[in-house]
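Subject: Protein record for review, amino acid sequence with backbone structure tokens
How to read it: Take the token row as a discrete description of the fold.
Enclosed: The protein record, placed directly beneath this head.
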Amino acid sequence: MKMTFYGQFVAGEDQEAIKPLIRRNQAFGVGAVLDYGAEEDLRPAPRSCTSAAEKMGGAEQRENQHPAHQGSGDGRGGAISTHTYFYADEAKCDQHMETFLGCIDASSGSSEDGFSAIKLTALGRPQFLVQFSEVLVKWRKFFQQLAAEQGQAGRAVLEMKLDLEKLQDSLANLGITTKTESQHWFGDKDLGVSGTVDLLEWNSLIDRHRKLSKLLLVPNVRTGQLEPLFSCFTEEEDQQLERVLQRLDVLAKRATEKGVRLMVDAEQSYFQPAISRLTLEMQRRFNRDQAIIFNTYQCYLKEAYDNLTVDVELSHREGWHFSTKLVRGAYMEQERERAAQIGYEDPINPTYEKTNEMYHRCLDYILEDIKHSRKANVMVASHNEDTVKFTLHRMIELGIHPSEKKVYFGQLLGMCDQITFPLGQAGFPVYKYVPYGPVNEVLPYLSRRAQENRGFMKRANRERDLLWREVKRRLLTGSLFSHPR
């Protein structure tokens, strides 16, 4: 297997074994995003996977009240091109953190200006991330409901601004709080000084008023009844949040010390609001002077543009470097199946063309921001030649030079070398996403590469034709072996 499928898509078994490939790629101007490819067993996890300490804190009772769907939480099916972790207990999360630390060290020791990839579902209970995501979505929908009542339905989310007086009247009429209390909420942090409240100021209420947010009541969109915003959170689950943040803090500090960028992978949409919020917390702390923490936005999601523009605006207001990876997405089949079974709106764009439009719209927004602020950073993680050409064209138009290292390109190891290596030779910052690990432990990753590549036959035929043309060219010119410039 090492001479065939493993050798094509995996760099090696350990930190030493991957160095020759990384150095060879570096000679052609290609960097590495290291990702330790070993995974947990892909069998469905037990219904209850709480540790003894968490059972004492009531987490098991909450998990039974809010069970994960078969395709979510602690067990996942139908996902390709991604790594999957299953929660056992907090000690296992600490082991995953040590694995990520080793990956950061490997990136530092084998490449310059490297990246290391991590997954937040490996650092905490996935079911907790589902619940936290539900809280964030509920709070945002409440804001949009209030905006609609003020005649702002259909506006872009950043253009929605609640009139403060009307907002306070609405909160009082709904029985959520008195007008005097709400004046205290907004006055504490000088929110709404312009007479309006936008989504970023609205979100800051639960960011800055942790004790207050536990008392907040919001209307259930379906029933109209008031219910606690944090109804499913126990003290132990609050501690879980703190432990996730502590693990992220350890990883971010190590990455900063080693000169490595930390790339937080995107996951399913029912995890993603929590993942993005926790990643933003790290960006606020570690991206003050340079881009260390990179978030990921999946452009097959209908809300991708709104989510991205809100986070870019937040970085402007708070003065840190916005940095992200843009992908199309890896969970489409699973997302649609779950939406149909549970009965909510499909979060995925209806067609591949719509996803392409979303990708280019998000990318163009960031490129424009780079032009004006020079503080944003983006990795164009794509195997789509049209997307790469679009990016190069817009960089020329906007005056963004590759030497600024604001725009990066990324492809998976073993795929689309005809995109990666010409970019590297031309001086563009380009990276291969490089998994590594023992053969028996990366088999799940390799099986997904096989599944994924069944849909790439057309692309494979094109790559084969390009290879034959290059072989003929070298034979005719007498330059069989290529040397980096």
In short: The CA atoms of residues 217 and 229 lie 6 Å apart. The chain has a mean pLDDT of 80. The first strand starts at residue 30 and ends at 36.
